[in-house]
Amino acid sequence: MSVPPLKIGVLVGSVRPGRFADRVSRWFLSEVGRRDDMETHVIDLSEPDLASELKLTLERSDGSGDAPTLAERIGGLDGFVVVTPEYNHGYPASLKLAIDYVYREWRAKPVGFVSYGGMAGGQRAVEQLRQVFAELHAVTLRDTVSFHMAWEQFDEDGHPHDQDGTAKAASVLLDQLAWWGLTLREGRAARPYDG
Predict the structure, then answer these.
(1) CA–CA separation, 59 and 138 (whole Å)
(2) Mean pLDDT (the chain, rounded)
(3) 3-class DSSP state for residue 127?
(4) DSSP string, 142-194
(5) pLDDT level of residue 61 (50, 70, 90 thresholds)
(6) What positions does the domain NADPH-dependent FMN reductase-like occupy (predicted)?
(7) Residues 45-62: what's their mean pLDDT?
């Protein structure tokens, strides 16, 4: 019996102009693309429709429109990887707004992290995000991919200087995501999560 690929959302959390997230997320998507057990769905918070929807939430709009809402997109996925920078020892406000905009759709799903930043490599942002996702009944993965002094870790073509090390770290993260994603998908199908 063939198992359908996991639908994995790659949530790009920065909306800053000139952001480094594009380089990090392109690399990570190429790593996921090597697998046949996952299909990726990019949720880039800088997308015009999505940015507009999130802005409207501050005005208490229902977010209606032609594009699928953020809640619909999150609800249709089996797991997530959040690509986040660390800004001022934390994660971006845009990411907090997007996470809080959705509620039940996060439940009983795995969340992994790819972080980047200065000396801490985004790990302070990740530790804060773990607390947020715990409140949403999501399962965060232990192992992460982290780029310390990120702007020094990539060449001009967007490839990490340490291609073997970063590929191994991504593989560990994705293997954990595959296990949790499949296990929780089967669990939700057998018995809906009402925690």
Answers:
(1) 27
(2) 92
(3) helix
(4) S--EEEETGGGSB-TTS-BSSHHHHHHHHHHHHHHHHHHHHHHHHHHHHS---
(5) very low
(6) 7-151
(7) 65
Burial label, 71 (beta-carbon count in 10 A; 0-12, 13-18, 19+): middle
Instruction: Read off the DSSP letter of residue 90.
Output: B
Q: How confident is the model at residue 66 (pLDDT cuts 50, 70, 90)?
A: low
Taken in order 126, 127, 128, 133, is the CA torsion positive or negative?
positive
Residue 73: Cβ-neighbour burial (10 angstroms; 0-12, 13-18, 19+):
middle
pTM score, whole prediction: 0.91
- Distance separating alpha carbons of residues 114 and 11, to the nearest angstrom: 10
10 Å CB burial of residue 185 (0-12, 13-18, 19+) is buried
Tokens of 3: 């198992």
d(CA 70, CA 106): 11
Cα–Cα dist 118/13, whole Å: 17
pLDDT tens-digit readout, 24-44: 999 999 999 999 999 999 999
Q: What type of residue sits at position 193? A: Y
φ/ψ of 47, rounded to 5, equals: -60, 135
pLDDT category of residue 195 using cuts at 50, 70 and 90: confident
| Tokens encoding 103 | 């509620």
